[in-house]
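Q: For a teaching session next week I want to show students how multiple molecules come together into a single three-dimensional assembly. I've collected the sequence lines for a complex. Could you give me the predicted structure tokens for the whole thing so I can convert them for display?
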Amino acid sequence: MWRYLIPIGVFAVLAAFFVRGLSLNPRYVPSPLLGKPAPEFELPRLKDPGQRLGSQDLNGQVALLNVWATWCVGCRQEHGFLVELAEANDVPIYGLNWKDDRARALGWLSSLGDPYVASAFDELGEVAIDWGVYGAPETFLLARDGTVLYKHIAPLTREVWAAEFVPRIIEQCGGLPCPPADGEG
Amino acid sequence: MRYSLMALGCLLSLGTALAIDPEPPFEDPALEATYQELINEVRCLVCQNQTIADSNAPLASDLRREIRKMMGEGASRAEVIDFLVARYGDFVLYRPPFQPTTWALWGAPVFLLAIGAVVFGRILRVRLRQPLGESDPLDETTS
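A: Of course. Below is the structure for the complete assembly, covering every listed component.
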């Protein structure tokens, strides 16, 4: 009897591990930043290099920080939805332009639309390392107190927005829209 | 002709193998050894089956630059590892730490080896008891 049960048992255990393991997405690496204060940063703005964009601009509001670049195919995919989100004006969207070319990035925004309150220009990718960024597009949801509430790695879609972002924003704000403290360009 | 072509091929492949990290090595050999060890233990999250020493992805070169900078400022090996884990999580390490979530990972080989040892011992005991020249009692049920 054991002669048959043991191999079947071993097979069942292995099969269970494979079903679980192979259904996970290896590209998705959970961020250790969740629930922790967002890393401090300060960078020149994409549109106005003389001005800075940093943590103090984001603090005090529920905000999105979207990591994007013109070399990133997924960013182009999600861009339309970001523009739509910006028009709904539910939460302010900030951009982190990652290892990009300034002229190309500005061209992208003028031809595809600019959903961002402002974008920080991270030419060397140093701030991106602090944020644990490894593949654009990535979108962070930040709380009023500057905590990282959620991180989405992949193009942002309407489904992900409704399932993961909206409930967390409502929890923070009590409802939508969750407007920015003061609009600024 | 064939040999010179092969030699040329070897030289060319050597060049690409070395060119991934274009920075000059640290002057202190101990520091350079630690740096090499570190970059060979850190996973490139863009191309997950490569270390940042193997990968020429932009993120890998950024991380090499960051590690180099930290070590140049006197950071220890442990400080660099903590820096990376705080940002990218344990997955960034090719050698995951021994902690509750990885007990099964580290324990499984020992566990499987123990099972193998028990099975091996039992087979050995049965065979030792068997007089020479008789057929294998383990085979009787199957034949």
